[in-house]
Specification:
Number of domains: 1
Radius of gyration: 19 Å
Number of helices: 12
Number of strands: 8
Order of helices and strands: HEEEHEHEHEHHHHEHHEHH
Length: 334
Amino acid sequence: MDWRGAFVLAMGLAMFAGEARADAMLKDFPYPHPVREFVFTSQGQPLTMVYMDIAPAGTPNGKTAVLFHGKNFCGATWEGVIAPLATAGYRVVVPDQIGFCRSTKPAAYQMSLHQLGANTHALLDSIGVTRPILVGHSMGGMLAARYALSFPAATAALVLVNPIGLEDWSAKGVPPSTIDELIEGERKTTAESIKAYQQKTYYDGRWRPEFDRWVEMLASMYQGPGSDSVVLSQARASDMIFSQPVVHEFPRLAVPTLLLIGEKDTTAIGKNRASPEVAKILGNYPELAREAESRIKGARLIAFPKLGHAPHIEEPEAFNAALLDALTSLPSTP
């Protein structure tokens, strides 16, 4: 980033800070719909899972879509998808997972994909959602896949949007990292480093001003009161993602599955600590998506050749049109 880019980003963050105080809980960051709280006990401690629950804006179709955010995202980043789904008749539920965004970030918690899935299952049960369509992006794709594997009878369909975990990085030669090492890496996070990473990895070198809002959202959690809880939760999440692959279980998925993949994505956990020889073979999303489609029974792949890791943010109109059209082809669900 040159000095002009750094200045623009700094000014943007200054403006953001004037509207919303840096806060690990994002209390002052505007969410697109009112948030609710699900209070429950897990691993012997009270926790609060924040979520949005949006009623159909059009004629209800009797279906519910549950949207799972990624590690560097929040429920709020689904804002461009929520309204089209609601207008099409879907009830839309969008949680912030435990350890992320507005939900509790416990000091002591064994974080696993199954645990987060079970937390979400408990939330959905509490609000009367029985067989939702799961839509997972990035880490949320791994989580949605684990949910579908853990609760197949409670899953109507699975939609994976540029999920990470289409490959097993450890099996391909990426060395492990301790939680302590991951914490040290997270402590170095700044708005500038977030933007640089996303521009290079998510958007194939491209950037538009509207993406800055999501950089500001993420960066604000690393600043001010409670930032240590964010650093710890993010480090645990990185370890969870690396050490709990779901790709080997894709043949066991027993629900209708859609893959919506931006092919310019190059995301790969641990690429920065892999050897050059290993790093260059990681994150090949066109190839990984085709492999996933072949290994998930009945899966359908929809590719976006010019888009990156977050196609629903990068080109929402094209993404939403493809998503809504594909959802109509899924088997009817009660």
